[in-house]
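Hi support team,

I'm opening this ticket because the web form for multi-chain structure prediction keeps timing out on my end. I have pasted the exact lines I submitted so you can reproduce it. The total is 651 residues across two entries, so I didn't expect it to be a heavy job. Is there a limit I'm missing, or should I split the entries? Thanks in advance, R.K.
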Amino acid sequence: MIKLLNRPLKVFTLYALLILACSIPVYYFIAEHIWLNELDEHNKTVSGQLKENLLNHSPTDSSLAENIAFWNKLQPVSALKFVPALKPDSIYTSIRKNKYIDDPEEQDRFRGLVSYFSIRDQNLQATVESNVEETHETILAITIITIAFFLLLFIGFIFLNKRISAGLWKPFYRTLDKIKAFELNHHNAVEFDKTNIIEFAELNTSLEKLISKDIATFREQKEFTENASHELQTPLAIIQSKLDLLMQSSELTPEQSRIIDGTEKALGRISRINRNLLLLAKIGNNQFANVERINLNDLVAEQIEMLSDHLATKNTILEYEPEGVVEVNANRILVESLITNLLTNSIRHSTNEGKIVIKLSSDFLIISNTGTGALEKDKLFKRFSSMSSGVQGTGLGLAIIHQICQRYGWEINYFSEDGNHRFRIEF
Amino acid sequence: MKILIIEDEKALAESMAAYLSAEQYLCEFAETFDDAMYKAETFHYDCILLDLMLPGGDGMRILEALKADNKEDGVIIISAKGSLEDRIKGLQIGADDYLAKPFHLPELAARIHSLIRRKSFGNNNLFRQNELKIDLLAKTVLVNDTEVILTKKEYDLLLYFISNKNRVVSKTALAEHLSGDVAGILDNYDFLYAHIKNLKKKLTEAGCDNYLKTIYGTGYKWQS
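Hello R.K., no limit was hit. The queue was backed up. Here is the completed structure from your submission:
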């Protein structure tokens, strides 16, 4: 995964590199061509001047021979020679040591013009030479300059890219941040910043529409759960009260009593499921907003005390190992509910004469109990996915635990070791 | 003893009245907010059972009006809302107790019993049944003038039974009374049997008649 803006940067950089690399030979050939052309012209000029001056200053054959000998003494390289016949002018390039340059390693390149002319029926050959920049030096210079320019380009690209992403893409990143921070169960509609870029404005409007629809649906659904649970409470209360009255009747047969007992148990279960659904809906609807500092050591101890009867009937040993004073900022009702649910779960699912271990520290709370076989992690915290059939749970305990943890950003994990269950909450 | 039942569900109000009448409570009804407000402000009741969601208004306002008039009627809120925040608010305004729907009628009777006892200092602080004497203020139990030492839960159970005397109380109602919501989650009444066994044993050993009868299949009944 790479950032959107880095992709064109990479392509642009590669393209610039390719073009600049190709430009090196092109520059070289052009520079070489211009250079040699100029030198050839220069040589021609020198040779022309030589010819003209030689003619002007050599009125006699003896003075000509004298001048040629003098010239050859002064300029042994550009020699003037008598030749038997005139030939067409020729150009040559030679590389050799330059004795006028100190560096003993240095090999210099020379461009020469060999031209022929005749003075008073005597054929002369004149050689004019100029020092030319060597090929490798030219290429080196061009390459260095090209690399320097490439680096400038590259730095420029990065800088511009940053400027562009900071400026041009700002509305996009702002939108992205808002969406990242958005949480459906917080109910706050997202308001995006105004932007004058058409694409971003369209994106924002579409997102706003989508989100507000989501929120409305979510709210409706949660309100429905809450209202439905509320509406059920009164009929449940009526059934319960009628059962309580029926029980008072003096002519009940044992069979009828058993039926009433069974009905009452089922009714109790419906009531609990309903209460838990209501609790879940309320947590989801952001009730229980007031937060206080809660001493977890005391709270856990209280809950254990409350459940001592049930621990005793199952002969369960409970070990409670708090480390130091642990306090959290949360709603008391929710934290009580969390601990009660965790504890009742571990009591309910532990084997008879089993063992429950509670560890509490400022970072975590661990409740583990002896059990039989691991539970399915994926389904564990979902509503009504209770996996043990024999036990009369509401199927909502772990969902409540999960939702409360989520509310406060605590992480809850389930582990299974040798059939033992372990729940760990990370504060 | 006069009780005002403010409840718009007729079936529920009637059940409550039927159960409570057996204890010489005189029940009156109010089904709407206005009716309830009128009765609560005009007459005196030993206890008002107040449903918060009423046709015509919020029951909480009746409570506020009672407190504003400095009326001393005991108030038990009975609400379908069941939210603990409501409970806290109700108790802050001045309700004496709070009961969430659905509830067991014996639980309601126990709450009313306890409320009326608290409201009438000196008068009703002594429960007496032959050799058994309970001092409700000191929380002591005497059999033939000898004190019987009970645990908190055994004492709770005893009070629950005498506030529902001569009526059948189910195991579920008792279990929920002792350990709240948790009782049902664990679906095990062994702890309840243990407490009841101990209570019976302590009372009979002190020379008390066995007033607590086991009703086959359903629960228990305290006979007086």
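A quick check on our side: Chain B has two domains: 2-119, 126-222. Let us know if the file doesn't open in your viewer.
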